């Protein structure tokens, strides 16, 4: 099986913070993120990602992973679909294929699935998704005990809370350097469930066959994205290991510009934070 084992994940944890960029549903987006300086790229995989019908086709995952390796980067797969019980064996087979194709890490948002994947695919690193809404040291430690090596913190978590979460869990800490403003706790939106998309006309979750229609964009909530670009040195000192950019829906051109901007900001912040 290709991919990183736990020892390699621990080594990565000790390195300088990474810039993790989205790559939407195309290899062009992967190329744009890598060209702009991303250390790692995450993609949704069609049939396994939010909405089910979007994401990189599974046949192209190997090509995306090869492009990342050639650039000295990692490929992460956002697997935020939650399978029905009868679909779990096929789900595990799909994750095993992702590992064989070169995916370095999967992002999961269900505690039972984290425990199951850790048991059945022990060499595949797992990141606990923002969908689990991990907001305190106890949450993070529980994810570690289930089998996660990393955790994505919601944007509601303050910078001063990061050290205690990191100490209690020993996990790699990912924070959103740039994300859409949300009026609910990040990752816990239920509005898209109101879209009737099921075969019987009932509402279905975006994580169980439905789609995310970004209903929140029609509500009177802040329009400006949340950005840490001017606070990166402080977040580095707090212990953030990965700065993640949200935006799998961004076209390659816009994505490249955004990633390039954060690459420059992060390099400058790291230069300031470097010892003596």
What does this structure look like?
The protein is α/β, with parallel strands linked by helices and 276 residues long. Strands 1-2-3-4-5-6-7-9 form an eight-stranded parallel β-barrel, surrounded by seven helices. The chain contains nine helices and nine strands. The protein has helices at 6-13, 27-35, 58-70, 88-101, 111-120, 137-146, 162-169, 232-238, 252-273, and strands at residues 18-22, 40-44, 74-79, 105-108, 126-128, 150-152, 172-179, 226-227, 242-245. It has one domain: TIM Barrel (Alpha-Beta Barrel).
Index terms:
about 280 residues; alpha/beta; eight-stranded parallel beta barrel; 9 helices; about 35% helix; disordered N terminus
Widest sheet: strand order? Answer: 1-2-3-4-5-6-7-9
The class by helix and strand makeup works out as alpha/beta
Provide the CATH architecture. Alpha-Beta Barrel
How far apart the termini lie comes to: 41 Å
Unreliable runs, pLDDT <50, ≥5 residues? 1-14
Summarize the biggest pleated sheet: 8 strands, parallel, barrel
- Proportion of β residues? 5-15%
Please, what is the average pLDDT? Answer: 85
> What is the CATH class designation?
Alpha Beta
List the helices and strands and how they pair.
Blueprint: H1 6-13, E1 18-22, H2 27-35, E2 40-44, H3 58-70, E3 74-79, H4 88-101, E4 105-108, H5 111-120, E5 126-128, H6 137-146, E6 150-152, H7 162-169, E7 172-179, E8 226-227, H8 232-238, E9 242-245, H9 252-273
Parallel strand pairs: 1-2, 1-9, 2-3, 3-4, 4-5, 5-6, 6-7, 7-9
Antiparallel strand pairs: 7-8
Helix pairs in contact: 2-3, 2-9, 6-7, 8-9
């Amino acid at each position: 099986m290709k991919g990183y084992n736990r020892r390699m994940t621990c080594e990565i944890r000790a390195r300088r913070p990474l810039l993790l960029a989205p790559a939407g549903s195309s290899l062009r987006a992967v190329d744009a993120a890598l060209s702009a300086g991303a250390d790692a790229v995450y993609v949704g995989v069609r049939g396994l990602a939010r909405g089910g019908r979007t994401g990189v086709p599974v046949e192209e995952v190997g090509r995306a992973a090869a492009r990342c390796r050639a650039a000295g980067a990692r490929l992460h797969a956002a697997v935020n679909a939650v399978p029905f019980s009868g679909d779990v064996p096929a789900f595990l087979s799909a994750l095993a294929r992702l590992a064989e194709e070169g995916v370095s890490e999967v992002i999961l948002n269900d505690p039972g699935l984290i425990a199951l994947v850790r048991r059945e695919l022990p060499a595949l690193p797992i990141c606990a998704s923002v969908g689990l809404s991990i907001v305190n040291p106890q949450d993070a430690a529980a994810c570690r005990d289930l089998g996660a090596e990393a955790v994505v913190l919601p944007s509601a978590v303050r910078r001063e809370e990061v050290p205690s979460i990191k100490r209690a869990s020993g996990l790699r800490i990912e924070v959103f350097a740039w994300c859409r403003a949300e009026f609910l706790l990040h990752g816990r939106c239920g509005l898209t469930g109101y879209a009737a998309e099921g075969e019987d006309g009932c509402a279905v979750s975006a994580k169980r066959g439905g789609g995310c229609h970004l209903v929140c964009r029609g509500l009177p909530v802040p329009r400006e994205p949340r950005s840490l670009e001017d606070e990166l040195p402080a977040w580095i000192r707090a212990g953030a290991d990965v700065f993640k950019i949200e935006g799998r829906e961004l076209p390659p051109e816009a994505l490249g510009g955004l990633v390039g901007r954060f690459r420059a900001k992060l390099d400058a912040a790291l230069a300031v934070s470097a010892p003596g």
